[in-house]
Write a sequence for this structure.
């Protein structure tokens, strides 16, 4: 994962090499959160673009594949949760850290083959299935409508295993204030900080994103241009 301390120090040095502490932790933290979410969203965009290229047989193989590379980068954020149906609404509520669904299935005994739940996002398509005498959902061929919550058919199912990408934890650069010879000294507090939840090779891109935002904030065209250039090359 990318060190929040490393990104902060780099941004601070780029923003103002002569005035130490020009970029406060508070300002940095607000930009760091947005920078991480921007890159996180771009990973999913790369998967969509990569799949289009794959259908055209032009997506690169293995490590050069946009799809495979993005999925590998996102893999630390993949998690599974056992969900119980909400008895008052009859649906399954998504976890609080839910971002993007990967798969859904009916939990079975340890070692047994799990029943995959087919995912649908269009209510009209679901209505056609429910009305069908041939392809209506069954316990061996269940269906889930994915919207603000998760509605599973047949409705007799009360538990599901949900595999999804969670929202990355918010990066935080935290400091402690020490008193040394009557002077106050700010030092990095690693225990109360949170690193970026992105692979280390995204550090240059994170720096570029934060610097670009900072350039807008302080109306520094050179800083913004630097961030934009570095982001393009990252």
């Amino acid at each position: 994962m990318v060190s929040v301390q490393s990104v902060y120090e780099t941004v601070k040095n780029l923003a103002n090499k002569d005035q130490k502490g020009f970029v406060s932790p508070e300002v940095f933290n607000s930009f760091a959160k947005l920078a991480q979410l921007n890159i996180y969203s771009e990973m999913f965009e790369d998967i969509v673009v990569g799949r289009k290229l794959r259908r055209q047989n032009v997506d690169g193989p293995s490590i050069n594949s946009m799809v495979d590379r993005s999925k590998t980068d996102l893999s630390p954020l993949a998690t599974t949760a056992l969900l119980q149906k909400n008895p008052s609404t009859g649906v399954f509520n998504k976890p609080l850290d839910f971002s993007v669904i990967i798969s859904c299935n009916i939990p079975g005994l340890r070692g047994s083959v799990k029943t995959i739940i087919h995912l649908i996002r269009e209510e009209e398509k679901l209505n056609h299935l429910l009305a069908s005498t041939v392809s209506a959902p069954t316990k061996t061929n269940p269906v889930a409508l994915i919207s603000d919550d998760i509605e599973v058919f047949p409705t007799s199912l009360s538990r599901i295993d949900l595999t999804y990408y969670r929202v990355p934890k918010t990066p935080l650069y935290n400091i402690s204030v020490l008193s040394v010879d009557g002077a106050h000294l700010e030092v990095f507090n690693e225990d109360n900080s949170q690193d970026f939840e992105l692979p280390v090779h995204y550090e240059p891109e994170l720096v570029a994103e934060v610097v670009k935002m900072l350039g807008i904030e302080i109306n520094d065209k050179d800083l913004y241009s630097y961030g934009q250039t570095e982001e393009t090359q990252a």
Q: What stands out?
A: Residues 25-55 form the longest helix (31 residues). The chain has a mean pLDDT of 85.
